[in-house]
Amino acid sequence: MLIRMIEGATRVIGKSQGYLGLPLRDELLTCSVGGPETPAMVSAWEPTPRELAELQAGAAVHLRVLGTAHPPVYVYVGPVPDAPASQGAASKGDAGEISQLSELIAMAERSAARLEASGDAAAAASMQGLIHFALGVAEVLRT
Q1: Interior CA angle at 68 toward 20 and 44, to 5°?
Q2: Whole domain around residue 53: which residue ranges?
Q3: S-S: 90 plus which of 76, 94, 104, 142, CB 3.0-4.6 Å?
């Protein structure tokens, strides 16, 4: 999945910890457990072309939470974005570059998973760094 800029973002977390950075929108909602004005954070994600094809073929969305305590989460599909009038349609070259980069990210994700499964944590961590860099490039290409 590719990190997207969430509409109405209020902050970006994770950069100071060495991660790519995750734009968040802080919200207050009424929760049946937490009550009224329960704080929540919303982020936006976009499937790569490979992931989209896998979802259309029936694959499930998985959520990985780091650590040993699982916070309450809610995974859902956001609204379909309107094309910004000032941006116009992306050129075929731009769309092609993003598609190619998305495929490279998908290959790197598979490689990282294989490295992690083989016990090569250092190589897997290096591959994750490459993935985070490529995700940043993809975000720049989108804007």
Answers
A1: 35
A2: 2-79+89-142
A3: 94
The string of pLDDT tens digits covering residues 52-80 is 999 999 999 998 888 888 888 888 888 88
Assigned domain for 15 exists = yes
pLDDT digits (tens, 9 = 90+) for 90-114: 444 466 666 677 777 777 788 878 8
Domain count, the chain: 1
| Rounded distance between C-alpha atoms, residue 28 and residue 42, angstroms | 11
